[in-house]
Write a structure and sequence with these properties.
Strand content: 15-25%
Oligomer: single chain
CATH architecture: Alpha-Beta Barrel
Radius of gyration: 18 Å
Number of domains: 1
Order of helices and strands: HEHEHEHEHHEHEHEEHHEHEH
Structural class: alpha/beta
Distance between the termini: 16 Å
């Protein structure tokens, strides 16, 4: 488990990051910290959070949600504002709004601008949905999602981009493993950074799972919710991660290479959990 968690990344928001006095006290130096850009969050809050995390010695990967960016000029300003703070990585995604507020509707359009390469960004991540995404495939299938990932895989092949897939959080290993197998069979070779929900009360976990459109693996939560004695107890991703760690150890061809935590129960609850397993920073060449 310690080996599987080594080099994990974690997601924060400006308002949650502000509650942490010093990230160096809770995270291994160099940890990749994603900064989630929720619609309505001022960009200046994002920029200042990025500056703070860079100053504290972390690798910062802010979100670029296509649907809340007005046009190429605004995208260019954001890219360069982050770069001026020492940021050279980005997570590109459609964003959590129903209708585009500008000219972009998906992450492929952001990639096609070439602005990240022009600004010297060295790593670009894209979103993955192991259990599907009804915003993209309304019928519950995965044809459109898979087509988008094939496009992004081809983009990496024809450019100098260093890319990976960062996924939505899941609760059960079997659907994730099956999805990773389907990607490999489809010729999609992008590394997978699998999303895991950090420890939280079961009620909190179910609330976030429903709001974020978690797939069939949410049954792990609903089964546990039937036991009223466990409703107020924290739910941890230990079984989910243990199963994935065992699978990747016995299947070296598996593309799942890192864990990305969504700290639904709080940042320190997640970092306390990872510390239990002695998780440290991977060597830079491996991360």
């Amino acid at each position: 488990m310690a080996g599987f968690l080594a080099g994990y990344s974690i997601e924060v928001m400006p308002r949650t990051a502000a509650k942490i006095e010093d990230f160096r006290a809770i995270l291994p130096r160099g940890t990749r910290v994603y900064i989630a850009h929720i619609d309505g969050t001022p960009f200046e809050d994002m920029r200042l959070t990025a500056r703070r995390l860079v100053d504290e010695g972390f690798t910062v990967m802010p979100h670029f949600p296509a649907r809340i960016i007005a046009d190429s000029a605004e995208l260019d300003r954001r890219i360069n504002a982050y770069r001026d703070e020492g940021v050279t990585e980005a997570l590109l995604l459609a964003g959590g709004v129903d209708r585009p507020q500008g000219v972009f509707s998906d992450s492929m359009q952001l990639l096609e601008t070439g602005l990240f390469d022009k600004a010297g960004y060295t790593r670009l991540h894209v979103a993955g949905h192991p259990e599907g995404n009804r915003d993209i495939d309304a019928d519950g299938g995965e044809d459109q999602v898979m087509a988008a990932l094939r496009w992004k895989n081809d983009f990496q092949s024809r450019t100098d981009a260093d890319m990976a897939i960062a996924t939505q959080f899941c609760f059960e290993a079997a659907p994730v493993i099956a999805w990773a197998d389907r990607l490999r069979a489809a010729g999609i070779t992008l590394p997978i950074h699998i999303g895991a929900a950090g420890p939280a009360k079961l009620q909190t976990m179910i609330k976030f799972a429903m709001a974020c459109g978690a797939g069939p693996s949410v049954r792990v939560l609903t089964r546990r919710a039937k036991d009223v004695t466990k409703l107020m107890l924290p739910f941890t991703p230990e079984q989910f991660l243990s199963d994935l760690a065992a699978h990747t150890a016995s299947h070296p061809e598996c593309q799942i290479e890192q864990v990305h935590f969504f700290p639904l129960g709080g940042i320190t609850a997640t970092t306390d959990f990872t510390a239990r397993f002695g998780a440290t920073r991977r060597q830079a060449a491996q991360a």
